[in-house]
Amino acid sequence: MIPDAPRSGGASATGKVLRKSMIDVLRHRAYRHLFAAQVVALTGTGLTTVALGLLAYDLAGDRAGIVLGTALTIKMLAYVFLSPVAAALTEGLDRRKVLVSLDLVRAATALCLPFVTEVWQVYSLIFVLQAASAGFTPAFQATIPVLLPEEDEYTKALSLSRLAYDIESLASPALAAALLGLVTFDALFVGTCLGFVGSALLVLTVALPRDPTPERRSIWARTTRGLRLYLDDRNLRGLMALNVAVAMPGAMVLVNTVLLVKAELGGSDRNVALALGAFGGGSMLIALLLPRLLTRRNDRTVMLAGGALMAGAGLVLALAGLSPPWGWPALLATWTVIGAGYSMALTPSGRLLRRSSGSPSDLPALFAAQFALSHACWLVAYPLAGWLATTAAPETALAALSFLGACGVVSADRFWTDRKRRPDP
């Protein structure tokens, strides 16, 4: 049986690092408002994650898992296939109007979810919601490097964004639990709607740079432009391989933690939350340290080391096993290391995309390509993790996914290593 894990200390030291490393970037008014918009929208999205599971159970009972799994698949398909299309359709448009419009579409869709009575209605609304997100997120991400042209400041913004995602993954379920003590789960969708409306209002308060008038191209050329720019660059092909390296062990954590904790270790629901919290905690710690680390090491070194940490930690745990009494602390330690590697491998990717762009007008297309390709890796990794853990053993799934992650790291290293004639980013 798993013992309760103690609370980790060092909050004051962490806060000191945070203040010294990242808070100063919030002095920029435009970025400060956009970051606040991101936090508000993330909070609303987190409430939807909880409410959607409850809605699926309310509509489908014992088949709720199938409904929720299908909804998540629809989400990933929208991300993979619609983000390049959205980037093409919005090329040259006023970026602020685009972001506000997509936020309002998301808000209206979330407000419809409490009134659904059929499963197909859930699928339809989730498709609309995620289609809007597939347009919003890359456009939002591509705006930040234009607002913060100094690399040090942009690095701090990337770390702050990573930290916001990690905190949201911990805070939103707690907020939802508190609200559910006062209201029914349907009301959580209203909270989601308010989050997107708040995001839209905050975006309206800033003046965003206008993109130059785009060249006349066909819709197909504009849709595939980001992918062509991405795949023509050896560094970005390395990033694509690193997306595989991150998705494979990452999917093991997100899909099979509950199985490892409850079936293999005999733990409780609280232990599942603690294990996932260890993953998030490792990611948060590295997000705090990355701005300083990236002044001493180049992106390639840090990102490859992150992918190698994820694969190596998973392989070590798979070989060592989860036998008591060390199974529980070994799982916590491994998930913390994998979370740290996750942040190291992914957070600097924005810097790589910015360096690889020929001009600021390329950024939306490149960010949309990275958004689509990275989610394509997760679209493969999620069902693979579930299938391996079900048909084989969880340790076998962990070993296989970690090995595939290691292959991704080796491939990424080969792409980057072959560019010796040019300075390493």
TrEMBL record:
<keyword id="KW-1133">Transmembrane helix</keyword>
<dbReference type="Pfam" id="PF05977">
    <property type="entry name" value="MFS_3"/>
</dbReference>
<feature type="transmembrane region" description="Helical">
    <location>
        <begin position="272"/>
        <end position="290"/>
    </location>
</feature>
<feature type="transmembrane region" description="Helical">
    <location>
        <begin position="188"/>
        <end position="208"/>
    </location>
</feature>
<feature type="transmembrane region" description="Helical">
    <location>
        <begin position="326"/>
        <end position="345"/>
    </location>
</feature>
<feature type="transmembrane region" description="Helical">
    <location>
        <begin position="238"/>
        <end position="260"/>
    </location>
</feature>
<keyword id="KW-0813">Transport</keyword>
<feature type="transmembrane region" description="Helical">
    <location>
        <begin position="63"/>
        <end position="86"/>
    </location>
</feature>
<dbReference type="GO" id="GO:0005886">
    <property type="term" value="C:plasma membrane"/>
</dbReference>
<keyword id="KW-0472">Membrane</keyword>
<feature type="transmembrane region" description="Helical">
    <location>
        <begin position="397"/>
        <end position="416"/>
    </location>
</feature>
<feature type="transmembrane region" description="Helical">
    <location>
        <begin position="302"/>
        <end position="320"/>
    </location>
</feature>
<feature type="transmembrane region" description="Helical">
    <location>
        <begin position="34"/>
        <end position="57"/>
    </location>
</feature>
<dbReference type="InterPro" id="IPR036259">
    <property type="entry name" value="MFS_trans_sf"/>
</dbReference>
<dbReference type="InterPro" id="IPR010290">
    <property type="entry name" value="TM_effector"/>
</dbReference>
<feature type="transmembrane region" description="Helical">
    <location>
        <begin position="365"/>
        <end position="385"/>
    </location>
</feature>
<keyword id="KW-0812">Transmembrane</keyword>
<keyword id="KW-1003">Cell membrane</keyword>
<protein>
    <submittedName>
        <fullName>Predicted arabinose efflux permease, MFS family</fullName>
    </submittedName>
</protein>
